[in-house]
Design the sequence.
């Protein structure tokens, strides 16, 4: 072994310990068996070799990768693209903790909460993967027992409200009641949901009306539109109501929507 490739000649001194190092990495080409020699006796001298075999390097890379990423990626893309994060996507939703905390604080004391912002700013994601998930995890006292209903008005807000309450309660009767009697009593929503709440005063029912602007852009029937708005305001206004209405919409609609004006003090 020459001095140029190992530097060994300058490091050996009468019976002492010699270290194999490289002064010119381009000329070093150790075989795997040479690299694995440790504390071998060569000509009466101890030779310490520094380095890892190819297999050891590969094993180290895997070990370091698992240290940085304990759970191996399964190939699932956590980004939903233009689709909003749903409650089932909560484990991938982060960066809006402060906003979610603000929503929780509002929901804890109010019966009517408006979430507005520019299109594409993440309002639905914050409401569904943020607020609803936090409530289901018990972030507010007793909120793990709340009934959580979600809907979008689309072209038939009364039907979609009935379906949302059926999903939340598991009872078809409440859906039929809303669908059949909504136009007769503006307080029907609040009184009907009480039948499905326990006597624990901490339990409430939260209704998320997503895409509230659809009440104006897609609902053609003015009677259905007004009846739906009356149900929302009638549920949120009474002091003893255990309904919480959260609706998200564009800022311009939030300033003009009748429900916002009626529930300014809710």
Sequence:
């Amino acid at each position: 072994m020459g001095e140029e490739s190992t530097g060994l000649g300058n490091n050996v001194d009468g019976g002492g310990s010699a270290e194999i190092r490289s002064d010119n990495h381009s000329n070093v080409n150790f075989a795997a068996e040479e690299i694995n020699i440790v504390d071998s006796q060569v000509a009466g001298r101890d030779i310490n070799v520094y380095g890892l075999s190819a297999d050891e390097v590969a094993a180290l890379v895997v070990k370091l990768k698992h240290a940085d990423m304990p759970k191996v990626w399964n190939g699932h893309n956590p980004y939903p693209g233009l689709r909003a994060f749903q409650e089932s996507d909560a484990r991938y939703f982060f960066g809006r903790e402060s906003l979610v905390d603000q929503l929780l604080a509002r929901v804890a004391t109010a019966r009517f909460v408006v979430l507005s912002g520019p299109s594409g700013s993440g309002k639905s994601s914050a409401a569904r993967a943020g607020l609803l998930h936090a409530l289901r995890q018990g972030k507010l006292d007793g909120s793990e027992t709340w009934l959580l209903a979600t809907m979008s008005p689309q072209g038939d807000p009364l039907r979609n409200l009935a379906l949302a309450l059926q999903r939340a309660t598991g009872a078809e009767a409440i859906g039929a009641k809303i669908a059949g009697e909504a136009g007769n009593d503006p307080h029907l929503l609040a009184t009907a949901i009480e039948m499905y709440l326990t006597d624990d005063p901490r339990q409430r029912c939260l209704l998320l009306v997503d895409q509230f602007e659809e009440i104006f852009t897609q609902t053609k029937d003015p009677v259905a539109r007004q009846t739906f708005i009356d149900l929302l305001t009638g549920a949120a206004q009474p002091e003893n109501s255990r309904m919480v209405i959260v609706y998200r919409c564009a800022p311009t609609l939030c300033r003009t929507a009748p429900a916002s004006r009626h529930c300014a003090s809710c």
